[in-house]
Amino acid sequence: MDHFSDYIHYVIILVLLVIGFIAVKKAARCLIKTIISIIVLAAIAVAWWYFN
Questions:
Q1: CA angle at residue 21 from 42 to 18, to 5 degrees?
Q2: Per residue in 2-31, pLDDT tens?
Q3: Which of 22, 31, 41, 48 places its Cα 20 to 30 Å from the Cα of 15?
Q4: Whole-number Å distance between alpha carbons of 32 and 24
């Protein structure tokens, strides 16, 4: 794997983390926070699997 795709991999994970953090911060209820957290973690796992 070349260095460019490694950087893209980390940028995607960073963007997902930022979006997830903002979404959880704006969510008002605990259940919504839990669902959003699970979705963000699943998206990170898919990105990690796809690029590895």
A1: 85
A2: 666 778 888 888 888 888 777 777 766 677
A3: 31
A4: 8
